[in-house]
Amino acid sequence: MSTPASDEAPADRPDPATDPGRGRRIAVDVGSVRIGVASCDPDGVLATPVETVPRAKSSRQGGPPADIARIAEIVREYEAVEVIVGLPRTLRGENGTAAGIARKFAKQLRRVIDPIPVRLSDERLTTVSAARALRESGVRARGQRQMIDQAAAVSILQGWLDERSSMVKDAADTAVGDDA
């Protein structure tokens, strides 16, 4: 079952008003079985895979679920300034079950890593694209699952970084134009 995208907050986009500036970013591709994780360099140029985290079946006693705890640990290890969670929408822009899972995950993660911002980024077809690219590069199907999750996270993050770079450039061009 899916709901129109207007029923939920829209996916985020890089915004000069909320951009935390220079620093590493972490992206996660939340699946029902695994979570792909990617990071970027401090200048926000290139996204690279980090690891695949198994989904937790339930909450740990007295703390967040193990998957949330591991992502929070990665955020601390990488000294991330922002986390981007892929929001899987249908091709018609609707929120299905997977989008609900991603939103719930983002909400739980936000509570654990506050004040580091957690953003939702539209990630339609990233997993499909990642699987196709790996298959075309000769990676065997058996070894693909964890790599697909990481490659999807890389795709989510690289899209965010590219859009952010364009946004920062546009803001700088506007500032230069204002000074003229």
From TrEMBL:
EC number(s) reported in the record: 3.1.-.-
Keyword Thylakoid: no
Residue stretches making up the YqgF/RNase H-like domain: 23-130
Keywords linked to the UniProt accession: Cytoplasm, Hydrolase, Nuclease, Ribosome biogenesis
Annotated GO MF terms: hydrolase activity, acting on ester bonds; nuclease activity
InterPro entries referenced in this protein's UniProt entry, alphabetically: RNaseH-like_sf, YqgF, YqgF/RNaseH-like_dom, YqgF/RNaseH-like_dom_sf
Subcellular location: Cytoplasm
A GO CC term attached to the entry: cytosol
Function: Could be a nuclease involved in processing of the 5'-end of pre-16S rRNA.
Name the UniProt record assigns to this protein: Putative pre-16S rRNA nuclease
